[in-house]
Amino acid sequence: MPVETRSIRASGAVGRFPSVTRGFDDDAEEEQPEEGDAQTENACRRWLRKVCPCCCPKPKDDDITDTLVTGIDELEKEDELDNEKSVTGDSELDELLLKVRAIDLMKSKSGVIRTEHHTNLYQSNNFIIRRGQTFQMWITLSRPFDSSTDKLHLELKTGPLPTVSKGTHVIIPLVEGLEDGRWEAAIVEQDNKRIKLSVNSPPTAVIGRYQLTVETTNSQGQAISTHDPANDIYMMFNPWCEDDTVFMDSEQERQEYVLNQDGHIYYGTENQIGMRTWNYGHFDDGILAACLYVLEKSETPPSGWGDPVNVVRIISAMINSPDDRGVVEGNWSGNYNGGTSPTMWSGSVEILKEYQTNSGTPVKFGQCWVFAGVFTTVLRCLGIPSRTVTNFSSAHDTDVSLTTDVYLDENLDPLAHLNADSIWNFHVWTDCWMARADLPPGNGGWQAVDATPQETSQGTFRCGPASLTAVRNGQVYLKHDCPFVFAEVNSDKIYWQRNIDGTFNQIYSEKKTVGHKISTKAVGSDERRDITHLYKHPEGTEAERIAVESACRYGSKALAYSSPTAEDVSVEVTMDGEGPEMGGDAELNITLRNSSSEKRTILLHGQVAVMYYTGVHKATIRKDVVEIDVLPNEVNVLEWSLEYKDYKDQLIDQAALMLTLSGRVKETQQVLATQFSFRLRTPNLIIKPVGKAVVGEKMAVTISFTNPLPQVLKAVIFHLEGQGLLAARKVIYGDIGSHASVSLTEHFVPTLPGPRKLLASLDCRQLTQVHGVTDITVEENSNAAL
Questions:
Q1: Number of helices (H) and strands (E), helices first, in the chain?
Q2: At what angle do helices 542-552 and 482-490 cross, to 10 degrees?
Q3: Which residue in 93, 209, 212, 319 has the fewest CB atoms around it within 10 Å?
Q4: What pLDDT does 494 receive?
Q5: Longest dimension (CA), the chain
Q6: Which helix (H) or strand (E) holds 335?
Q7: How many other β-carbons are positioned within 10 Å of the β-carbon of residue 631?
Q8: For residues 20 and 78, what is the distance between their CA atoms, to the nearest angstrom?
Q9: 651, 709 in Cβ contact below 8 A?
Q10: How many CA atoms lie less than 13 Å away from 608 in the CB half-sphere?
């Protein structure tokens, strides 16, 4: 491929174009028509090549990747110089500059990189990778890379206005060693003119299509490779990366909810459930391009495409057509002239390809299962775990009452103009998986999202993500759109009768009409899985009623539920001292206060769950139900304990636990609820300096640790570092026995005087979050040479 060279011109040159910088009087020689014509043509072509290299390239056989060269100290030779001098200048330029000849991203579908990134199923020859994970590339240069004089960095740009501060223009520096969580590149292999780079991306990177260029610099100038679309990098979410918000720790679930291209969608009634197979086809050729086209059509800034909460809200709006001419046009009329009947579709591929081919014209027609199927395709394609869900007897609440309301006149005849709420035989939407750092802990995991245009959310037809945990517990004040989803699965059906004066009285309610047999395809099989328990407590239980009544207090018809006659009981959870230690029993105090002059009886439900630090629920490890009598004006303190054997097999990083309490006072119907997060405290490393700390003189520290667990810690590694004391150091220790105490000594030479801190940490699979620090005051070396 051609290479273009642009040089800084001589300071004495005047005028805009190299070929006309001298006055005509400078050339007083006798004209030679044939040779002059050739020179004029040659000068014009050179000028044209400088202002428009793509139209008039300068061919070079050994160039593969186009390179733009700037900032050359070597002065440009003027047009009137002879050919021999001109050729010599070009040769010297080639030798001095470091230019990119070729970039090999090793993007084969069956190659190591795409296999490791779980993108080998995409039927595309593009370079598709997942964020938060290392990838490699070979770069062929014009000469061998010399780290002492040459500099090199990568640049990635995405979106219409790439900006460094917004993460859409990424400058990737070359470093000695890679660190997780940041954009960095390191040379891991060099073969003459070829270098192999290993590149890190952060787990928060913006997803989408990046343009790649390589910039090289040395004392002679700078060269920038021309963008080649074949080397564009497609960045996806990464459910395999623990630091990505969409991380899912079960490989079996990742296979189902990310990689499986086939699924089942359920329909019919709760007593007659039908099933149809749906081809998600998210790895088909052209589907990734179509999904990114959908994102681009939203005209939302790509800087927000690193947050899955934002991305699913964008896609939720873009799958339907009312606001922004999205992918599918809904039609429930029964007349499908001019389009395809919704029941005819059996997959998403044709729909998405048609939408892109027709330049963003909505595809006709769809209903709820079509919207959900296409939504699931786009989410899985982009790397967000998702599944299609069907809710039987699904309510549609139109007035944010969180109830399904039926209005009757004085004669108990329906008032059609008021009865806007409805209960569908079934409704289909999508669940997606992510942590929710924007919500209180415990609300990560499965989130309901819906592309069917039913009601608007912040002015746009979209819905979610609504935390299933929040929906289940009636916490409808949490975003996004929890009230609507709650009403779909757990609203009461309330009948209202009009009075003579035009007001309405509640005359009857049905508490078990809505939200039955919520279904999705089972992991790893073609069976139907009932997930109703994830959306609501069992019908009729105290916990379910508490959730409903708690939710409806935030609705537009809060008075539909009788308020408690008194609110004179409170509940509080406290912890003694610094809290429970890892390896021991966890003990908390539950305090119930009765401020009334009468006895109160409380039915208290308790459950403790293991949590990821991101707030995603991992597992419930114990449930309790207890009835407690609290005497008038009494404070009753309950001792609550969790034994090591109950939690030892479920713990994950951060050792986080959450106790959830809910209950009701029998005499007043007051609802009690609270959550208490706590962690199991890990032991500290004890660090003690040995001897005096002096600049330039060897010293030592001892690090002591006692294993708190009744099990062996395997493959223990210690990390040490301290500014001015020692560079980051890793010490591979080995195994530490059950309840065993160990001590190790490390030597180092301080390099800076003054107060310093030495930090140490311990890491192994069985125990994390173990660390320690000590203060060391380093003295100046009085014997140092002046």
A1: 13, 41
A2: 140
A3: 93
A4: 85
A5: 121
A6: none
A7: 11
A8: 10
A9: no
A10: 21
**Helix (H), strand (E), coil (C) string for 231-293:** HCEEEECCCCCCCCCCCCCCHHHHHHHHHCCEEEEEEEECCEEEEEEEECCCCCCCHHHHHHH
Bond into 480 cis (ω within 30): yes
Q: From residue 564, give the alpha-carbon distance in Å to each of 127, 603, 630, 672, 702.
A: 61, 15, 18, 11, 62
Q: Which residues are tagged catalytic? A: 368, 427, 450
Per-residue pLDDT for 35 more than 50?
no
Q: Give yes or no for residue 155 having a pLDDT over 50.
A: yes
Q: Which residues contact 455 (CB under 8 A, 6 or more apart)?
A: 398, 461, 463, 484
β-pair partners for 224: 68, 215
Q: Which DSSP string corresponds to 623-673?
A: EEEEEEEE-TT-EEEEEEEE-HHHHTTT--GGGEEEEEEEEEETTT--EEE
Which among 77, 10, 11, 5 is positioned nearest to 222, based on CA atoms? 5
User: Could you tell me the pLDDT band of residue 764, with boundaries at 50, 70 and 90?
Assistant: confident
Give me the half-sphere count of Cα atoms (radius 13 Å) on the Cβ side of residue 593: 7
Other residues' Cβ atoms within 10 Å of the Cβ of residue 682 = 19
pLDDT in tens, 329-349: 999 887 889 998 888 888 999
- The yes-or-no verdict on residue 557 having pLDDT over 90 is no
Q: Which amino acid is at 673?
A: A
Tokens of 628: 């407690």
Cα dihedral 209, 380, 328, 299 sign:
negative
Please report, in angstroms and rounded to a whole number, the separation of the first and last CA atoms in the chain: 59
Q: Using an 8 Å Cβ cutoff, are 470 and 490 in contact? A: no
Mean per-residue pLDDT, 696-705? 94
* Contact of 775 with 756, CB cutoff 8 Å: yes
Name the burial class of residue 418, with classes exposed (0-12), middle (13-18) and buried (19+) by CB atoms within 10 angstroms of its CB: middle
Whole-angstrom Cα Rg for the chain: 34
509 bridge partner residues: 494
- Ranges of beta strands (E only) in 83-166 are 100-104, 127-130, 135-141, 151-157
How many CB atoms are closer than 10 A to CB 623? 11
Task: Please report the pLDDT score of residue 164 as a whole number.
Answer: 96
Structure tokens at 354: 């048609």
Q: Is the pLDDT higher at 614 or at 482?
A: 482
Phi, psi at 763, each rounded to 5°: -140, 135
Buried b (16+ CB within 10 A) or exposed e, 535-569: bbbeeeebbbbbbbbbbbbbbebeebbeebeeebb
Distance CA 384, CA 431 (A): 10
